[in-house]
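Trying the structure run again after the queue cleared.
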Amino acid sequence: MEMKTPESMGLSSAVIERYLRSLDADHLATHDVIIARGDSILFETYIPPFRGEDTHRMYSVTKSFVSLAVGFALDEGLLSLDDPMDKYFHQELEGQTDEYLRYQTVRQMLMMSTAKPCQNWFAARTDDRVRYYFQNPLPSRVPGEKFDYDSTGTFVIGALIERLTGKKLAVYLREKLFDKIGVSEKAHFLTCPGGHTWGDSAALMLPRDLLLIARFVLNGGSWNGEQLISAGYIKDATSTLIENDTGKGMISDQGYGYYIWKSFGNEFFFYGMGCQFALCIPDKDLILIYNGDNQGRHSEAMKTILHGFRDIVASAVTDSPLPEDPAAAKSLADYAASMKLMAAWETCTPTVKEKMLGCTYALDENPMGMKSFCFTEENGVLHWHYVNAQGEKDLAFGMNENVLGLFPQTGYSTFVGSQPGHRLYRCAVSGAWCAEDTLRIKVQVIDDYFGNFDAYFRFSPDGEQVEITMKKTAEDFFDEYSGEAKGHKTV
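Done. Tokens:
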């Protein structure tokens, strides 16, 4: 897709800058933003250390790709949307007497109207997630009647596509779609124990790759004049097939199609955990790509990112070009270049820093398994030294700015979800005095997995005692960094 000035496509550079400033004003952890209209990109920025040439975890946006794979398989005659699960997973359903589960259909699963609530496969540590799904012991309900987000069900549908095609999901999608629309060779999926693709959560690709796929769907499934997938399927997939209104007036309450979320009017979007978004606005021929990690701030972040985009940007688009505005264009470019990855932002003046810096604190028994810690400062960079069940750790951080490094905890998953991996996650760590006696440390993992935690250290006025509170928001890691502890100065 070619780059054009916003003004040439009916949008003011000043409007885009206003939108970016709204993201920063809400302290969102933004990684990249792309705005496109028609076949042109009007704006594109990446917040360091994120770069356009690096893949980004898309989390549940992956579900929308599974929907496309179902559409292609449907066109090939490999399945019917009204086929029951018992037709394809008879072995995994062996012994299961729940008729609702046995006979729920592909269509009902695509609509997130499954027979049973979603289970936590991370807690289960199962090596056969398909069988685990179909042996769900939870109470059942009539499928097709109620929207209830079921991530594990999407995994099963992805596994079904692999079973029917004899190909990995990424291979099938590359043959049917990716190569035809220019999705990069870097696009790939993580896997799950047992070998299936992690089809509900683990696509990694360039943000521009996501833009191409969104453009393809906004085109009704055609590319360069060729209809690659049934237009009827795409129309259904992006329509309200089941209601999901919570009464909060959110963009995500406007209905659901086939693993694709409805927005207002004829708009729709792909949605992944942490705020991975591809918002498509057909009436304006407009697409927003946003990637970030705002886990733990779901509703607030969605309002700023998606509602804000509609209110600030989409509402300002005109059908005719605007006069070029060099001053506004420069201001936008300068502001975008100045954007930094969100860091701890509080700026209170501490009263205990000199009393705690360089001192070692022993901790009482605590859920984190942390035994002691010490803060030191060297060349303007602070270090959090601590001892936990794995041994001695050292984490560098800046005050009100991030220090990039590797998070020192070992054993977190890499290529296979929920299985221990052998490399350390990349991270960004910052600190701030959020009260005169309380130091906050914010850790953001920025790798193939995203997650964050905040550690609050509240010291007594004399610096002799400390209370620690750690709060994590991460899927299947950082468990060692969640809980409370008390301690006292020893040295």
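Residues 37 and 286 are 5 Å apart (CA to CA). Worth checking whether this holds up in the mutant runs.
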